[in-house]
Design a protein that fits this description.
The chain is built from 5 helices and 59 strands. The protein has a domain of 355 residues: YVTN repeat-like/Quinoprotein amine dehydrogenase (Methylamine Dehydrogenase, Chain H). It is mainly beta. The strands form 15 sheets. A 5-stranded mixed beta sheet has the order 2-36-35-34-33, with no helix packed on it. Strands 1-59-58-57 form a 4-stranded antiparallel beta sheet, with no helix packed on it.
Length: 768
C-alpha cells in the first residue's frame, strides 16, 4: 500500500468531522452532515479494525497480545545498559497537536476518554486517551508529559488521582482499554497503581480466582475512609466477537491485590462512593440501569432500571442524595432522596450516536446544574430539563471539537469546566462562555496512513480517524489539508521538477460502493496549511469491493485504485480504465512501486481474502493479473513490500495471531518461503525493506516495530523510545537522511535514524 514518492499505510485514529461544504454528495469536498453524527462511519471503523485483525474469529486475541508483550519485555530486559545506550531511539514527530487552519476551536489532538484533576490544584491533571497513552500536566494544560511509556497498553479508559501529603506522593489509579470500541479493541491490560504521582506504576490485577477479568476499565472509585477498598467498573473479555460474562463491578479490600466480582449484570460504565458515607456506592450498568449499594459495594440492587445500551451516572458533591442517570436512549433521570424515587427530567436528550459519545457531570456546588455530552456539550440549570448547547453545530465556527466523551466541573473553581472529545481537551474559565484548547504537546493522533516526502522526510502526510488528512512542515507544524471526516491514504505522484507539478492524492469515505479520491497540485502549499484539492471523477470505475481504507498506489504518471479489480488513471486524468479481470476477493493493499525502475512496471495487489496477484507491467498495454497465492496461508494480506532495486523480491505480511506472519519470494511470487522467526504473537500490519541494505527488514506490529538483519529470517524488537504496546500500522523509509518513520494508531508519527551501525550492535549482543 505504498507509492513511488511516499509510501503509505496507517491506521485508525481520533475523531474529527466529515465536511463543511455547500456541495453535497461527491463534490469537491464529499460533504457529510455531522450534526447528527456518523453512526455508519463509526461502525465501519470498528468493522475495519476487527476484520484487519480477524478479532471476530480469534478467541484468544487478547491473551496472545498479553503473552507477546511479556515475551518482548523479557527480550528487552536481557539487553545490557551499554548496548541500550548505543542503540538509536525513536523520536516523536507529532502531531502534537495539529492546526485547524482558521477554525474557532483551535488546535486538535485526539480522542480523550478520561481526565482526573487533583483536588485542591486544577493545574495538576492526568489525561487518558483512546490509544495515545496517559499524560500529566502541572501547569493547567500549557504542556504535557506522557506517563505511559512502560505500560502495556496506550488505551486509557479511566484515571483517578488521590491527593497525598505532597503532589509528589499523590496516588494515581489507571484503568486500560477503550470503552467505545467494543470487540474492536483488545488493548486493555487491566489496572495500574502509582504512589509517586505517576512516576512509576505497578499492575494490580490480582491472580487466580481473584483476578480482575476486564478488557476495558471504565471507572475507578476508592472508599473515602478505607483507602484499601476499591471499586472498578468495566467490560469483560472479548471472545469470538462477543463480550464474555466477566463484565460488571469488581471490589478489592487489599489495594488491588485481590478482586471479587460483586455485580455481574452487564458492562459497568461508572462507579462512585458517597464522599460522606463510604457504605453508600453507586454504579451504572449498560442495559440494566443505575445500581446502589449500602454495604460499601459488597452487594447491589437496581435503583433505576433502564435497558439502554449505554447508561451513565453522576452524583452530586453538594448533596449525597442527588444522583443522575443519562442513557443512550436520550433519557435524563434524577433522584433527590438517595434512590427512593426517581424523576425523568428529560427525554430525547441525545443529539446522535450516543452509544459512542455520552457523558455527564454535576456542578459540585449546585445539584440542579448538570453538564452533559453527546455529539455536542450541553449545560443545564434545571436538572437537564432544558439544555443549552455550548457550541454551534459542526463547522469552522465550532468552539469545541464534537463527539464528547468527558465533561467535568472543577472542584476547585466555581466557574471552570473541561470538555474532552474526539479532538482533545478544552477548558472554560467562565462557565462555558468561552473555551481554550488544552492540546499543546499532546500527541494522540490515530493514523490510518502516513506518507513521506522524498525531498525531505521531515515533511509528512497522514490520514487520521475523523481528523481528516494532515500535512507536516519541516518546522514540526501539522496542518489540516482538507476536511473529509476520516482521512485515509495519502500519496504523491512523481516529481516533475516544478513545485506545482507535484500532484498529491487522498482518499476518504467510500460512497455508493465507489472510492472517494481527491487531488491537489498545490505542492508548495501542502505543508503550510494551504491546499487546492478537488474531487477525482469516477467515470470508468465499476462499483464493488472498494474498502473502507481504499487501496491506492501512485507511480510513473498513473494512479491505481483497487476494489474487486484494479483500475488506472493518468495522474492528471479524469477517466478510469480497468487493468484486467476481477479478483476472487477485494483488493486491500498494493505493493510499493519501485521508484528506481523503468517500464515495465511490476505491481502486486493483496486482497482481503488472502490472495496476492501480480502483473509484470501495470502500465497501459501490460498483461492481466496473475494469482500468485500458492504457498500462502490464506490470511488477509495487510501489506506488500518489494526490494528497492529488485521488484522480484517481495515480502507479504498477513493478519494472524498464530503461525506464519511474513512471507518472502525472490521469484516475483512464483514460490514463497515462510519466514519471520521472532515476530510476536500479534498481527503484522506493515513491512518495509531498507533502501540501503536489502537484508534489513522492518515489520510493524500491534506491539511495536521488529527488525531483521538477515533478510527476514529472524526478528528482534526495535522499540527503544517508543511507548510500549504501540500499534504500528505503517512504516516508511527515506534514503537521505536515512530514517525510518512509523505511523501509530494513537501517538502520531515517530522517526528513528538508520545511520547507526546496527549490524555491529547486533553482532555484539544487542539481540539476545
Amino acid at each position: 500500500m505504498r507509492t513511488e514518492l511516499l509510501t503509505a499505510l496507517l491506521f485508525l485514529s481520533t475523531s474529527l468531522p466529515a465536511a463543511v461544504s455547500a456541495q453535497q454528495g461527491r463534490g469537491a469536498l464529499l460533504a457529510v452532515d455531522k450534526t447528527q453524527g456518523e453512526p455508519e462511519q463509526l461502525e465501519q471503523r470498528r468493522r475495519w479494525f476487527r476484520e484487519t485483525r480477524g478479532l471476530d474469529q480469534e478467541p484468544g486475541a487478547m491473551q496472545y497480545r498479553r503473552q507477546a508483550l511479556e515475551e518482548q519485555r523479557a527480550i528487552l530486559s536481557a539487553r545490557t545498559p551499554e548496548l541500550l545506550a548505543a542503540a538509536p531511539r525513536w523520536q516523536s514527530m507529532g502531531p502534537s497537536p495539529m492546526t485547524m487552519t482558521g477554525w474557532t476551536m483551535g488546535k486538535v489532538s485526539g480522542r480523550i476518554l478520561a481526565l482526573a484533576v487533583r483536588r485542591g490544584d486544577d493545574n495538576i491533571q492526568y489525561l487518558g486517551s483512546a490509544s495515545g497513552g496517559l499524560w500529566k500536566t502541572t501547569d493547567g494544560g500549557d504542556s504535557w508529559l506522557r506517563l505511559s511509556d512502560e505500560l502495556d497498553s496506550q488505551a486509557i479508559g479511566a484515571v483517578q488521582v488521590y491527593a497525598g501529603a505532597t503532589p509528589a506522593s499523590d496516588e494515581v489509579w489507571v484503568g486500560t482499554g477503550d470503552q467505545w470500541e467494543g470487540c474492536s479493541d483488545y488493548f486493555g491490560t487491566g489496572i495500574f497503581h502509582s504512589t509517586n504521582a505517576g512516576l512509576t506504576f505497578v499492575r494490580k490485577n490480582g491472580s487466580g480466582s481473584n483476578t480482575l477479568n476486564l478488557s476495558t476499565i471504565n471507572a475507578i472509585a476508592r472508599h473515602p475512609t478505607q483507602p484499601q477498598t476499591l471499586l472498578v467498573a468495566g467490560r469483560g473479555l472479548c471472545v469470538n466477537g462477543s463480550v464474555s460474562n466477566t463484565s460488571g463491578i469488581y471490589r478489592s479490600t487489599d489495594n488491588g491485590l485481590n478482586w471479587t466480582r460483586v455485580s455481574s449484570s452487564g458492562g459497568g460504565m461508572d462507579v462512585r462512593f458517597d464522599r460522606n458515607d463510604g457504605n453508600i456506592a453507586w454504579a451504572s450498568i449498560n442495559g440494566v440501569g443505575v445500581l446502589k449499594s449500602t454495604n460499601s459495594g459488597v452487594s447491589w440492587s437496581v435503583s433505576r432500571a433502564d435497558t439502554s445500551s449505554i447508561v451513565r451516572m453522576a452524583t452530586a458533591d453538594s448533596n449525597s442524595n442527588v444522583v443522575y442517570m443519562y442513557t443512550s436512549g436520550g433519557t435524563i433521570a434524577k433522584t433527590s432522596d438517595g434512590g427512593a424515587n426517581w424523576t425523568t427530567t428529560a427525554t430525547g436528550a441525545c443529539d446522535g450516536q450516543c452509544s459512542y459519545n455520552l457523558t455527564i457531570d454535576v456542578d459540585p456546588t449546585n445539584a440542579d446544574r448538570v453538564l452533559i455530552g453527546a455529539i455536542r456539550p450541553y449545560l443545564s440549570s434545571d436538572s437537564g430539563t432544558t439544555r443549552t448547547a455550548m457550541t454551534t453545530t459542526w463547522g469552522s465556527a465550532q468552539i469545541v471539537h464534537q463527539d464528547i466523551h468527558y465533561v467535568y466541573f472543577s472542584r476547585n473553581s466555581t466557574t471552570r469546566l473541561w470538555i474532552g472529545s474526539d479532538g482533545g481537551l478544552w477548558r472554560s474559565n467562565d462557565n462555558g462562555a468561552t473555551f481554550v484548547h488544552r492540546n499543546e504537546g499532546l500527541a494522540l493522533t490515530q493514523f490510518y496512513d502516513i506518507a513521506l516526502d522524498r525531498r525531505d522526510p521531515d515533511r509528512m502526510l497522514g490520514g487520521a480517524q475523523d481528523n481528516s488528512s494532515l500535512a507536516r512542515s519541516t518546522s514540526n507544524n501539522w496542518y489540516l489539508t482538507r476536511v473529509t471526516g476520516d482521512g485515509f491514504m495519502n500519496l504523491s505522484a512523481p516529481d516533475t521538477g516544478t513545485e506545482n507539478g507535484r500532484y498529491t492524492f487522498q482518499t476518504s469515505y467510500p460512497s455508493s460502493n465507489l472510492p472517494s479520491i481527491i487531488r491537489s497540485n498545490n505542492y508548495a502549499g501542502m505543508y503550510g496549511g494551504s491546499t487546492g484539492y478537488s474531487s477525482v471523477g469516477t467515470s470508468g470505475l465499476v462499483a464493488g469491493g472498494f474498502q473502507w481504507v481504499t487501496a491506492l498506489a501512485v507511480t510513473k504518471g498513473y494512479v491505481f485504485v483497487g476494489g474487486n479489480s484494479v483500475f488506472r488513471i493518468p495522474v492528471t486524468g479524469s477517466t478510469w480504465a480497468s487493468t484486467g479481470s476481477a479478483f476472487a476477493s477485494p483488493v486491500a493493499v498494493f505493493s510499493d512501486p519501485n521508484p528506481n525502475g523503468v517500464a515495465p512496471l511490476r505491481l502486486y495487489a493483496g486482497t482481503t481474502g488472502g490472495k496476492v496477484y501480480t502483473t509484470s507491467d501495470a502500465l497501459p498495454g501490460g498483461p492481466d493479473w496473475v494469482d500468485i497465492s500458492s504457498g500462502l496461508n490464506g490470511a488477509r494480506i495487510t501489506d506488500i513490500a518489494t526490494q528497492h532495486d529488485n521488484a522480484s523480491v517481495v515480502y507479504v505480511t498477513v493478519s494472524t495471531f498464530t503461525g506464519t506472519k511474513l512471507y518472502k519470494s525472490t521469484t516475483a511470487g512464483s514460490s514463497w518461503t515462510a519466514i519471520g522467526s521472532g515476530l510476536p504473537g500479534v498481527t503484522t500490519n506493515t513491512v518495509m525493506v531498507d533502501t540501503a541494505n536489502p537484508q534489513r527488514i522492518f515489520v510493524g506490529t500491534d506491539i511495536g516495530v521488529y527488525e531483521s538483519t538477515d533478510g527476514g529470517t529472524s526478528f528482534s524488537p526495535m522499540t527503544l523510545g517508543m511507548p510500549r504496546g504501540s500499534v504500528v500500522v505503517d512504516l516508511e523509509i527515506a534514503a537521505n537522511p536515512h530514517v525510518l518513520v512509523a505511523g501509530l494508531y494513537g501517538g502520531g508519527a515517530w522517526k528513528i535514524s538508520l545511520d547507526a551501525d546496527l549490524d555491529g550492535i547486533f553482532a555484539n549482543g544487542f539481540q539476545p
